[in-house]
Amino acid sequence: MKPIVLARNDAFETFGVAVQALEDAGAPVVIWDAIGGHGGPALDDVGGLVVFGSTYNVEHADEQPFIGEVAGLAREAVQRGVPYLGVCFGAQLLAWALGSDVVKAPVREVGFEPISPLPAADDDRLVSHYEEGDAVFQWHMDTFDVPNGAELLAEGDGVAHQAFRIADTAWGLQWHFEIDAAEIGFWLDTYEQEGGDLLADWGKSRAQVEHEAEQHIASHERKGSEVFRRFARVARETR
Fold this sequence. Notes:
By secondary structure, this protein is of the alpha/beta class. It contains six helices and nine strands, in the order E-H-E-E-H-E-H-E-E-E-E-E-H-H-H.
């Protein structure tokens, strides 16, 4: 099958469970260092595109040219039916690329928060295995309006729009379903090293986030890996 392209939009991205899960599903993986200024792939050669998170938001598009480039590729993928999967920033970017607003969320989310799948998720090809109250890892301050023609798949208590699907080939998930225990630790370390105060800035302490991870990370990694395995199946069937 054609390779799945993973778009790196942050210098601190390690892709969590993504690479192993995709390779286990028989999908070759190519890393696109979008934030490094490397040109994007030709979609004729791509089985699917996964756009990961970023410490930038779409509001930084004027100062960060890679944002516009990735958005253009996302829009083209939807138009051509190339499977697309957006993670956090990648979900917001997809909505923005399709003309929807991305704005500050009513609350900042960090750590594990519950989601509520909607009836549209019951037979969804990527997220039907998520259940009411599943705790998923969040780290974001923005949210998106659902694009015209898209179907909302999951909601959250603090931030309503958590997952959507377009035309059965493109998905945007607000939570970091890719993250594993090692990446959580790396992100927390990096935030502290750069002078951030998690409790003051985001409303939870590092100890709170780590305690939540102890409770939820095993299930979170299993379900996140399943999303990638399912995405590989969609790419194989589509391309």
